[in-house]
Amino acid sequence: MLKPLLLIAAAVLASSAHAASTSRDFTYTGFYHAEAGQFLPNASIYGYFDSDDLNGNGLIERSEVTSFVLNSQQYVGWCGAEVFMCGLFDFSYTPGGALNFHTSWSTDPWGEGVAGGSAISGVEVKEHSYWPGGSASYTLRWTEDTILSMSPVPEPATYGMLALGLGVLALSARRRSRS
User: Fold this and answer.
1) CA-based, 20 to 30 A from 105: which of 14, 76, 129, 143?
2) What is the pLDDT along the chain (179 residues), one digit of tens a residue?
3) CA separation (Å) from 134 to 42, 52, 79, 114, 129?
4) What's the first-to-final CA gap in the chain, in angstroms?
């Protein structure tokens, strides 16, 4: 009686884990700094995203992203108090494959000064600011030496499946030791 219940519970947890939200951290390292005119091997951008593969096709698309943060700026939902507008305009990710995104942000254009930026993966990250009497900008461009590091963050359902699996193994070992 206990074995069929454990099998049903395992199947339910496995199916809910597939539909559960997944978080992934990422870092790109090594960029060409356009203003300095040199490759900076330690220059990096970082972020994370939360997603649900709603259609189960293995490809995460823009409509399946519930949160996207790049260099501490949130691009899905609320932009933050200092940012006038922001957006994640394009996104795709295949686990084990390429991460593609296009973001943009800007401060209030009617203020004393204005700042903004955009990022197009595989192309460049650019930020700029203008104020009365001055301006500044920097541009980091992808090269063939730019490296992507991605790490999945386990979800609670994953830990639940692990606990259930360990429980089944312990129960099995216990039954074998009694025999």
Assistant:
1) 143
2) 555 544 455 554 444 444 567 899 999 999 999 999 999 999 999 999 999 999 999 999 999 999 999 999 999 988 887 888 999 999 999 988 899 999 999 998 887 889 999 999 999 999 999 999 999 999 999 999 999 999 865 555 555 555 556 565 566 656 666 76
3) 28, 44, 26, 11, 8
4) 18
**Single-letter residue type at 34:** A
- Tokens representing 123 are 């192309």
The two tokens of residue 44 are 């990096």
Q: Which two tokens stand for residue 89?
A: 């305009």
Beta bridge partners of 69: 48, 74
C-alpha–C-alpha distance, residues 84 and 162, integer Å? 43
Q: Is the pTM of this model over 0.90?
A: no
Q: Among candidates 20, 14, 4, 3, which has minimal Cα distance to 155?
A: 20
Please count the other Cβ atoms lying within 10 Å of the Cβ belonging to residue 71: 13
Residue 154, phi then psi, degrees to nearest 5: -60, 145
